Amino acid sequence: MSEINIAVVPVAGMGTRLLPATKSQPKEMLPVGRKPVVQYVVEELDRVGVNRLLFVTGQGKHSIENHFDLNPDLTQMLREDGKEDLLAELSFIRAPMQYFYTRQRQLLGLGHAILCAEAFVGNQPFVAALGDSIIGMNAKSRIVERMMKCYADNDADAIIAFEEVPAEETYRYGIADPKSDTDIFEMNDLVEKPQVSEAPSNLAIAARYVLSPKIFEALKATKPGVGDEIQLTDAIRLLLKNSGKVYGVRLKKEEKRYDIGNFSSYFQAFTEFALADEHVGPELRTYLKKLLNEDHS
Ligand code: UTP
Prior knowledge:
It is a single chain. Helix content is 34%, strand content 22%. It is of the alpha/beta class. The protein has a single domain (6-262), classed as Spore Coat Polysaccharide Biosynthesis Protein SpsA, Chain A. Helix 8 packs across helix 9 (232-241). The longest helix has 16 residues, at 281-296. The protein is globular, with a radius of gyration of 20 Å.
């Protein structure tokens, strides 16, 4: 089995839950700590050997392209001013990554966004990583590497990352019906947003997938589901129904998923990353403690 080195990163969504912040800027470009969300996603993929990356973009997403482009004027100015530390902050643009872009011209859901990658991906397995989710503090997760290995070891059709969520929150997620209670497990089925009493587990789909090109036929055969969108989960269920082999890989405790899709989780992510910041974290911690103490008085 050849190595998987391509990834598809859908970033076309409107981010309506983050309005007005996302009115004229992509939610994937919102900062978490020092970097925009999507930079963490690219750095995570770079670390596990991805070297060709397709962004599925949409209207108003040009700042993503600009962010990963070279910026000679800026680098020259920083060099002339001897600002080596700031230049180092831009080293991510020199990662050995080739960027590609395509537009999802109609926002018909995540499944449809993945389908837009078919011509690019061709007949090979690939990683799909949601552009609005960071895995692990400062994206220091190698979940995708474990997923790639699981894909190869089992000659699988799809691998999905899962995080444990509190049992009472399962109604918000796509939930695994696993065959075994292990870190890597084969899937019986997936259940979309089950009632708490009906959830087969507390394992929620967590923004990373390794997919065989069979997914494209499954997506084409998938009718619009929730929200009139073509759901990736439905297409993976179709693979399962047709005797496909689908596995789940659990995130480790230290590989928490930071979903930037709503204000509550965005604020939490920003706070955690800011507190973990080497330079300003300690000062912020003192400040927050003081603020919270004042609040109690
Ligand atoms: P979400 O469903 O969380 O994003 O998709 P959204 O549609 O932007 O959210 P709201 O509900 O309007 O706030 C997760 C990821 O999939 C991408 C999004 O850009 C996001 O990174 N996505 C979603 C697409 O690329 N295309 C779509 O049609 C939907």
